[in-house]
Amino acid sequence: MGFQHPDISAFPEISLVIGEERARAGSGADWAHVYPGTGRVTREVRLASPADVDRAVAAARAAQPAWRALAGDKRRDLMFRLAAVIESKAAEMSPLLTAENGAILIAGGHMTADAAQKFRYYGGMADKIDGRTVSTWGGPALDYVMYEPYGTVGIIVPWNGPLFAATMVMAPALAAGNCVVLKAPELAPWSLMKLMEAVHEAGFPAGVVNMVTGGPDVGAAMVSHPGIDKIEFIGSGATAQKILASASQSLKPVGLELGGKSAVLVFADANLQGAAKRGLSGAISASGQGCVNGTRLLVERAIYEPYLQMLKAMAGHVKVGDPFAMDTFVGPVISQAALERIDGMVRRGIEQGGEAICGGAPMDGDHAEGYFYPITVLAGVDPASEISKNEVFGPVLVVTPFDSEEEAVALANGTDYGLGAYVHTTNLARAHRVAGQMMAGQVQVNGSGEAMTPCVPFGGMKHSGHGRLGGIEGLREFQQVRNVWVNLQD
Ligand code: NAD
């Protein structure tokens, strides 16, 4: 029988937005989108080609002078209007978010509200882009700093949260006065197509926001395109290496938001129940396919056994299944290839001494038609093993005991990644002391995702990337600095 398959009659049609043009098809190859909940094709999309990228860049560049010159209050008003239109489409957006990558339906309202809030937050900055004056040395002079847009920003996002990722770039880039060319990922294109409807309805001038739906060839064409002034890339480290190799030729600035293997440190003085609940939900949300999920739990030995038992009991109450069902918390992973990768990593983790407290093998029955993996908690895993060091991108968490604060910090910092870190303790001094030692772009104390709001700078250290999206830092990513020095002597 299987799980519910998406109703494609409500899917948006426009996969290409280039200036005034809004087309159903690009000029590239056909792509059959597969819904991960059933493993069946939903609809075919004719993707964009590098030639479409050329036209999108030309449209963005043509729109740039007027958009940059538009008074800040007008840009603000348009962005506020866009926020309202997005909110008005929440009911249509939620099933698309599920249909594109199997995200659970109950998260759709939050994701849509978050997208709207980003445009409101940065819309509120669009009319406050002030420079500053600088005190000078030497003779009398006036010196001031101006924050200028780059021009055209290329945005490349992954399939795991396209609406979240695209809006966290679009909102500050537009507020700063840039035009954008956005690539919707072929694996999950529907929510961004819907977003383009909202941009149109909000009344943005043609060419300010352009979208091409496409795969790696389209992304690569954007990166090498001389008409794109800055690239913001959200995705894997492997792709980032290719992008940086290409950008080494053009010297184009590239912002990178990459993967993570975020540690969760649970000290014996923590609120255990809360730390277990947050430890579990923070690891398995989005089926474990979140860049900043805390998937490496480090637990003080004194509470290790009771904590594991709590995790196991809580995991047993979480429903893994049809993402359209309102009581489901964990849906499928994106593809058969992902399922096999996850299972392979789990098997090797067990071979290397890990014990599966729950899960540990693919699911059968209705689940076997889609790409479902059970919640898997691996205990006693060697912190140097593959599964402890690398992103699994599935509902899998590893748990390792520690004996001292010093050891916990060393273990937490012991991977190449540096995106998030979570510290659970009721000791105020320890909370700040440990937070200050985390080699991670975002540390949450007694939290598991609540910090992810538009006002907070988000980004990575080490192999998790550089640059920040969110907050005033997010605006600065899309501004370049001009300094003006004026001689005040004759
Ligand atoms: P990916 O790197 O395979 O693809 C990301 C995007 O890059 C896609 O749109 C893809 O079409 C495009 N692309 C592929 N090859 C390209 C090339 N040579 N040039 C230009 N573009 C190219 O990543 P994915 O599998 O889609 O996403 C999962 C990864 O993204 C995970 O590592 C996850 O942690 C990371 N991620 C990071 C954040 C963050 O904010 N730090 C957010 C979400 C996801």
From TrEMBL:
The active site is at residue 257. The lineage of its organism: Bacteria, Pseudomonadati, Pseudomonadota, Alphaproteobacteria, Sphingomonadales. It comes from Novosphingobium clariflavum. Residues 31-484 form the Aldehyde dehydrogenase domain. This is Aldehyde dehydrogenase family protein. It comes from the Bacteria. InterPro entries: Ald_DH/histidinol_DH (IPR016161), Ald_DH_C (IPR016163), Ald_DH_CS_GLU (IPR029510), Ald_DH_N (IPR016162), Aldehyde_DH_dom (IPR015590). Keywords: Oxidoreductase. SUPFAM superfamilies: ALDH-like. Gene3D superfamilies: Aldehyde Dehydrogenase, Chain A, domain 1, Aldehyde Dehydrogenase, Chain A, domain 2. Belongs to the aldehyde dehydrogenase family.
